[in-house]
Specification:
Layout: H1 9-18, H2 29-48, E1 62-66, E2 78-81, E3 91-95, H3 105-115, H4 120-129, H5 135-139, H6 143-159, H7 167-192, H8 197-208, H9 212-224, H10 228-250, H11 256-264, H12 271-287
Parallel strand pairs: 1-3
Antiparallel strand pairs: 2-3
Helix pairs in contact: 2-3, 3-6, 3-7, 6-10, 7-8, 7-9, 7-10, 8-9, 10-12
Amino acid sequence: DYGLTEGSRQQRFIAMMTKSDGPSYPDTEEGKERLLEDLLIKQNDMMARLSPYFWRLPETKLDIRRVPEYLEAGAPMAYYQDPSIDGTVPGIFYVNLENMKEIPYWILTTTAFHEGIPGHHFQQAVLLEGPRVHDLRKVLWSSGYSEGWALYAEQLAFELGMYQEDPAGRIGCVWAELLRAVRLVVDTGIQAKKWSLTEAVSWMTEHGGFPESLAVGEVERNCVWPGQACSYLVGKVMWLAARERAQTLLGENYDIRDFHEATLAVGSVPLTLFDQVVDQYIAQKQAS
């Protein structure tokens, strides 16, 4: 209970982000180091829970680092950098710690599952360590497939009980879902309805519960990357539909480990090809 019982859901989200005594880490070097350490603990906890869902767990290391200070002003809240193909450079989950009050830790819990394990890092590491594929398939990127997987990974974290003892992280998970829904609307408003930047920012702050500073960054991203925000949810819906289709058609022969193995081994394919991959996996299991 953070004492936020008044106002709309959006107003309470903003209050959690901005109130001085809200859940956060100290905006000090010690506080920043502790946040990175705690995120690593969560990632290790997640890895320990994944065996029932995956046949192979990646060996490629994941580093959690702060965005270099000279890049903080222009960098997003967090992002992931792929490991090198030869395995000599680890995957890196970068966290922007320029302003600890503006990006509270309870948002970063879900972000870590999205960018790290079982999200982008897990996806890329499994591909690099799995059956041999052409190098092009290791580096090409389809937003619908890759971001769809990362949102699907956030749901896996929920299914695996990662929020049972973390109510603030659960709030951050709900906030992240709201962010993707609002970005979808704003993306469509800018590209199809010709909204101005001011109109888009106003809509996002009013309906999404985002401080204006964060909303401006999100809207500017939508302006220069048409359709990318829509691809997140389109991809997630297709991952979930594919899993449900496999489970329904295979019945007792369905094993979620087989499903993940088959769908992660192909690289970041367009969603039209992804459907074919799933159909092929189902047919092979039925035949065997």
